[in-house]
Each structure stands twice: as structure tokens, then as C-alpha cells.
Amino acid sequence: MPKPSQPNLPGVQPKASTSSQKARTGQPSKTSPPPQDKLPAGQQQGYVVMVNPKEGYGFIRPSGSDRSGGRDVHFGLRQVEGHKTLRPGQSVSYYLTRTDKGVTAIKVRPGSIFSIPYLRFLLIGIAMALLLLAVLTMVLDRPASLALWIGLWSIAFSTATFGVYWYDKMQAQAGGLRVPEAVLHLLGALGGTPGAFVAMRQLRHKVRDHRFQVIYWLIVAAQIGFLIWLFFLR
User: Fold this and answer.
1) Is the CB of residue 158 less than 8 Å from the CB of residue 194?
2) Which residue has the higher pLDDT, 13 or 182?
3) Which is deepest, 138, 169, 183, 212, by most CB within 10 Å?
4) pLDDT digits (tens, 9 = 90+) for 156-190
5) Are β-strands 91-99 and 102-110 bridged in parallel, bridged antiparallel, or unpaired?
6) Residue 125, exposed/middle/buried by CB under 10 A (0-12, 13-18, 19+)?
7) What are the pLDDT digits (tens) for 105-135?
8) Where does the chain have alpha helices with state H?
9) What is the CA radius of gyration of the chain?
10) In this structure, how many other beta carbons lie within 10 angstroms of the beta carbon of residue 14?
């Protein structure tokens, strides 16, 4: 037989459920916290994207398959082994842990000195230019004219500078590791200003950066002054 329902007695309200009481009083019901993603185990690889020495922290961008969720990883400068100075773009290895600030990198170990972008991109640009210069001198059978040597030097460094500008443009569009502006200017000062000019116009790169343009044209003016002194005033 079905169980009879309790009669509603006068002046007696039926007992509400706990969830109904919490809904009326606005008290949130207890729910279990969402599960957290499991952190990758073992040593991770990445490169520094930002360092704030005054505040004592920075961010690392995981590289390759180590990157999870597309987020940069926070780290404290105290976690850098040997308390070495880190620079944006420098490669590092590290381990991941979870703190009250979220996912954090610990045991941060700086990469080799050649991973510093200032040195790496500069060496790549100079090596490309010198290799091309060697090829040109062999083709022309070691030209003896100073003007021709300067022309070949400028062609070699302009070609290498154009390549570095092109790489920096591609990295800017992809959000990757950029070539430091100091490297671009130094390659131009070594003789690559014609290639830099072509790259800026053809690739539409750095043309709206007024500070960059001012430094570039100052380098061009210094080079023109040097050539005038070398060929006409010496």
C-alpha cells in the first residue's frame, strides 16, 4: 500500500530541504573544487620573455612540446641558479611547481652565453656576411681596388642585414623571439644600411618606429661622412 502523506496541521509548516533553505537564504552550497591540470614532470625548456629586476620576478615562455595552455610561466629571480642575470630571449631550463601564485618555475638554470639573443643574432649576421664576402672575393679574384672592396663589403653585409630584418619581421607576426634593435643597428653600422633600407621599405618593418628611424639615419650620416673623408679629405 502507498505510504500516506502527512496531513498539513494548522500553524505547522512542512520542513523544507537543506538545499531549498540555502537557496532562499542565498547561502552557496558546498561544491568540490574543479580538478587542476597535472603539471608536466621533469626538466622543461623555454626562454625568458620578461625580467623585472626591481620586483624580483620574470616570465618564461615554454618551447616546443613543453608549452601547455599557451601561457608564460612565472618565476622569481631567487630561483635562478647562481643568481645569474637573465636577459629577454635567453634560453633556460627549469622545473614546474604549483604555489599560491599559480604555476611557477623553480630551479631555473640559464643556458649558454650563445643563447643570449644579442650575441646569437649578431654572430649569425656577421657570419653570413663574411661567408658571402669570401664567395664574392673568390668570384672576382681578389679585387685590389679599395672602392671595390668597400662595395663588396657593403653588398655582403646588406644581404645579411636584409635576412636578419626578414627573420625579425616573421617573428613579429608569429609572436616569437625578436631580434634586439641594437643588433639591427649594429649590422647596419658595419655596412648593412643599404640592405636595412630595402628591408624596411619592402617588408614594411620598423618604418613607424620613429626612434628606430632616427638612429638609423644617424648611422647613415656617419657612414657618408666617413666615406667623404676616406676618398676626398684624407
Assistant:
1) yes
2) 182
3) 183
4) 999 999 999 999 999 889 877 789 899 999 999 99
5) antiparallel
6) buried
7) 999 999 887 777 788 899 999 999 999 999 9
8) 18-25, 117-139, 146-174, 181-187, 193-203, 210-228
9) 31
10) 8
Strands (E), 31-84: 44-52, 57-62, 73-76
Q: How confident is the model at residue 34 (pLDDT cuts 50, 70, 90)?
A: low
Number of residues that make up the chain: 234
Which pLDDT score, from 0 to 100, does residue 26 have?
Answer: 53
**Which set of grid coordinates corresponds to residue 129?**
656576411
Rounded distance between C-alpha atoms, residue 105 and residue 75, angstroms: 5
Instruction: Kindly list the structural domains of the chain, giving each domain's residue range(s) and its CATH number in brackets, ordered by start.
Output: 44-111 (2.40.50.140), 116-233 (no CATH)
How far apart are alpha carbons 171 and 89 in whole angstroms? 12
The answer to whether the beta carbons of residues 153 and 189 sit under 8 Å apart is no
pTM surpassing 0.85? no
- What confidence tens digit (pLDDT) does each residue in 188-197 have? 999 999 999 9
What is the Cα 143 distance to its own chain's centre? Answer: 42
Q: How far apart are CA 184 and CA 158, in angstroms?
A: 11
Cα distance from N-terminal residue to C-terminal residue, the chain: 121
pLDDT of 66 higher than 50: no
Q: What confidence tier does 33 reach under pLDDT thresholds 50, 70, 90?
A: low
200-219 CB burial, b ≥16 within 10 A, e <16: beebebbeeeeebeebbeeb
